[in-house]
Fold:
Amino acid sequence: MTVRLFLLILASVSLSALAQLALKMGTTATAGDRAGGIGAEIGAFLQSPMIFVGLALYGVGALLWLFVLGRAPLSLAYPFVGMGFVLTMLAGILVLHESMTAGRIGGTLLIAVGCVLVARSA
Structure:
């Protein structure tokens, strides 16, 4: 695997994790609109800048992923998506101050170890 390909993978996965963070922040900010029913909630989603940021980040990440898929075997590239679990968990802890259990951390680390094993097999 080339350094350029690895950086493309890392950028795509990182953008997806950032998208999750932005979407969570956007949906949390609209929590007060849940009492008005699903229509009010969807309306609030459509007015939330953070939701649009999250969707845009997903879009850019998906475009980068297309470049990855054009340059790497799927069986090599796709396990790196597991890095997104680690990055998203870290964002939840560091930015959203979510609490983590040993089980969540252990499970996420198992995913990360699997990603490393797949990457080393190339």
Summary: The mean pLDDT is 88.
